[in-house]
Amino acid sequence: MGEEREDPQKLKRIAAAAYDYELDPRWADYWSNVLIPPHLASRSDVVDHFKRKFYQRYIDPDLVVEAMPSIKPSQSTKPSASSSAADGVQPRNAGTTTRSSGTSAAAGSNTSSVHWDRQTLQFSVNSWVFIVAVLAIFPLVPRSLSYRAYRLSFVGTACSSLYSLYALYGKPRAWNLQAVQAYFQSIIATKDFIYLIYCLTFVTSQLFLKFALIPILCRMLEHIAKFLRRNFNRSTMYRKYLEDPCVWVESNTTTLNILASHVEIGVGFLLIVSLLSWQRNIIQTFMYWQLLKLMYHAPVTAGYHQSVWAKIGRTANPLVQRYAPFLDTPVSAIQRWWFR
């Protein structure tokens, strides 16, 4: 009977291990939002554990995922002590062991409380940014107030992304060129870094593009829904008013990311059009298209952006070949720069 109960879970674990996570764009986004120290993120057992959690959330809710065992340096010496205690032999330093275990338990609780404080702080900032961004987009808000809310939305998102980068990756090991370069290589493909640069681009710009706030709203909505589902799923108010919206957001993260990708690429073309106005900024336009190029190649956004660009190519290429064949040479040069 015990073997029959375990067989379904064994098959589910095999299916979870065989699943191709790299082809699922939700996995890259899920992994980029996991808050673990960098030295643990490189361990294969830790990655496998979070892959099973991802599989449980998005593919098979019936999969049972066991808690990740704690990693301790003295793990090899503890089983002998526990076995001797089970045989009735009490070690001489039992009091010391009890005190040290109590100290480690207290340290663990302090660590979890710090982790909780970080999440709560980021949730507060994200909620504030979401409210301010909605205020900036709402059409009946006076222009002066809308403009201030527009600026504050980008500033708040930049601060949230910067704090998340610091919490996950810390700071460079040394303030020299080699250490700083290695640090940037480790964070440049993350979603937090991409949105940090995205927000800084518009904070320093004179353009007032409410359209550019849609990716911010999608990102904040996703973070807020995840936090509420993880921490308030037993609350009566949450179950009554917020559970259905949060479930919808988490079930449609791919749709939200595709919408954000459409808007980000559309903003790039709007910046090109703005070069014809008195608010033109050639440097900002060039830097933003460098950011779009990064979004096209970065694993966390590549799937969505490549899909949008493929649709644009299927629409634009026949028109160029039919009505403007003289543009083939510049378009080829731009493509070589883009894929480089």
From TrEMBL:
Name of the protein in question: Transmembrane protein 33 homolog
Segments crossing the lipid bilayer: 123-141, 147-169, 193-217, 258-278
Family the UniProt entry places it in: Belongs to the PER33/POM33 family.
Native source species: Hibiscus sabdariffa (roselle)
Subcellular location(s) of the protein: Membrane
Signal sequence, renumbered to the chain: none
InterPro entries assigned: PER33/POM33_regulator, TMEM33/Pom33
Region annotated Disordered, chain positions: 71-110
Keywords recorded for this protein, A-Z: Membrane, Transmembrane, Transmembrane helix
Compositionally biased intervals (Low complexity): 80-110
Bilayer disposition of the protein: Multi-pass membrane protein
Chief location: membrane
Domain of life assignment: Eukaryota
Record Pfam families: TMEM33_Pom33
